Amino acid sequence: MNRRVSSFRSKRLRVKRRKHRFYRYCAGVLIFLAVIVGTSFLTRAEPVRVENVVVEGTGIVKKEVIEEIAKNELNASYLWIFSKNNVFLYPRKTIENRIYEQSTAIENVSVSFDGLKTISVKIREYGQDYLWCDSEARARCYFMDSNGYIFSESADFFKNVLFTYYGLADGNKPIGQTYLPEAEFAELNKFIDSAKLLKLVPIGLIARAEGDFELLLTSGGSILFSNREPFLTTFENLETIIAEQTRLEKEFLKRLDYIDVRFTSKAFVKLR
Questions:
Q1: Using CA atoms, how far apart are residues 140 and 134, in angstroms rounded to an integer?
Q2: Tens of pLDDT along 29-58?
Q3: Helix axis angle, 92-102 relative to 63-74, nearest 10°?
């Protein structure tokens, strides 16, 4: 009799424990769902919802395009449950990456909150310092920054405004290429700027054979030089030639066809 009572009590205890575990499981699921629903509601609540996207620094890239990218990402959700449109979960890195993908003209993007209601998107584009053109006919030209980085096709009216480089880059896919390594490009530009001290007005540079360049002048003449000699040496040679020729012919620079200073030991001058 005692064994039967004990067995019955033990069976009732096991059933009771199973019920308790089931209730605890159900309670846990309900609490979890409540947390999910509550958090989802909070991510969509009006007090934390982003209402404005402010874009600064655009030039080549259209401001409206950047705004649309930011708003599209904000209108999305994580797992279709948690809204990204709030101060806590807004996809800063995703927005930045999407903007970078939009245009090769963009050098830097910074996305941040300006208060609880506004997303600030700050754009820095590459400088439109020079042009690179696929040929001397200038059928297609591209913007190039101060470091020689080619980043975007240019409008036609820039062709007569900006100093223009030719050669070295692949004409089929120039965007993303660099004309020369940064340090070499800087030295080349210093030489071009120094030519202005000699009353020359450069408008373009053509890369000819390896290491040879032709500096185009607004007068129609040109200077042939190379990087096989230090640019300072080339400048000093050029300075001497121009000084001597100008003493002999006052209209020398106007009549100049070309000066060839590619070789240290000798120079060639031709007038029109």
A1: 6
A2: 666 665 666 555 555 666 677 889 999 998
A3: 140
